[in-house]
Amino acid sequence: MKRNVDTFIVLFVFLMLCSILAKPIRCEQEQDDSATEEVTGKKEQRDSAGNEIIKSKSFASTALKIGVEGPFIISDQQRRPGNVHFHHHMSRLPSGRLYLSIGKERDIVDQERFLLISDDSGRNWLEGDVKSWPPARFPGFGSSHWTYVNLDDQTILSYLNMSFVTSEKGVYQVPMWVSRDGGSTWGSMQSARVEIPGVEDVDFYNPPDWWRKKHEREIKLGFIKPEPPESLRELFSHFNPARARASWEQICRLHDNRLLGVISSTGKDRLSEAVVVQSEDQGKNWNFLSFAARYDPKYLDQTIAHNPTGVDGFCEPSIVQFPDGELLVVMRMGSHHPLYAVRSQDGGQTWTEPKRLSSHSVQPNLVMMQNGVLALGTGRPRELVEFSLDQGRTWSHRVYLPENDGVAGAYGGANSYMIEVEPNRLLYAYSCYNWDEDGADYWLKGHGHSRTLGTFIDVDVGR
């Protein structure tokens, strides 16, 4: 009898252990749903905050298999001695060539940048001739440098992220270039016309008193340059030096061949609004269509009350269109604040109320992959990518990217960019910083030297 009891106890313990080990690990709960995932991977090391760094990791479920490869160094101090790596922006030509623009100055108005080119899907990068991508000759304004759209395999439109004032109120000129041979050569600079209602205009080198007062600290610390860069003077010979406080973020070609552009525009209370413009003449003229989102204090996440000055309004919008025609825009609200999303069922004329997501916090980047998976990349405080199989209504998988490349004390969290470089493969480019207590200015002391890292993310859909 005792032997039977002992056998029963051993069997019961064995079954309990099997049940525990077989239970999948649960993802972080999203705003309106939760999901489960099974995680396997090799543990490597911990970063300066004590977070586990996993350099090779895969997520397996009945629907998705996700593998992370990296990080690897795209650009470092040896390539750009003494410079920072900030505000990344990528483009992909129909040929597969990649262009990566990286800010080589701190977060500053008219930030000087350098250009890298890859012809092997992002594995290796060489410094490129800025003439090969015309907007790269000029400084960047805001977190993005340029925006572009492939009309077909040969025709590419590219716009510099600056909107210059005209004599017509609410109408601006945007520098534009066209390639008819897939990006091998480009025509001369043209001017596109765009309507942006309610935006404030500023000549950054001769600003009004209110602007000087608001940005007194930035001016003192050198974030506002006293004189325009030489390349910008060339533009001023063609355009009015005054510009809209608006940032072109992304262009989406719709199923009906209309072009939609999403813009961060400084509006009410000098907070950002997400503006939607459309073109029906292949990008020469852009008419105001709608506001995707306008700031209202009710959207402020009160859980971030310790950072009230971090609210920017709805900015840095990213847009995708799904096969059924629905549009999704995801936007930044502020540094260390949650992202927000809106949807449109009528081609961008009207939008849903902004919905708060669980992801934080800057430069959201939507990619509709060829396999039908929607990816959302963002950063600060951690670089992460989320995945959805239902057009962003729920996010079933989340991947945190390694914050450093093995350098002690390094951290990420700056503006990053993600693009599909091959079928089922994403490349995520982002900054990695090292504090420099002996730095020459407060930026180096607070942010330090930096490098640009890349991480590949493979996303396979189960059958």
Would you mind describing this structure in some detail?
The protein is mainly beta and 463 residues long. 10% of the residues lie in helices and 43% in strands. It is built from 5 helices and 33 strands. Strands 11, 12, 13, 14, 15, 18, 19, 20 and 21 form a 9-stranded mixed β-sheet that branches. Strands 1, 2, 5, 6, 30, 31, 32 and 33 form an 8-stranded antiparallel β-sheet that branches. Strands 7-8-9-10 form a 4-stranded antiparallel β-sheet, with no helix packed on it. About 11% of the residues have low confidence.
End-to-end separation in angstroms reads: 51 Å
Largest sheet: 9 strands, mixed
- The domain tally reads 1
Number of helices: 5
Features of the shown structure:
463 residues, mainly beta, Neuraminidase, nine-stranded mixed β-sheet, globular
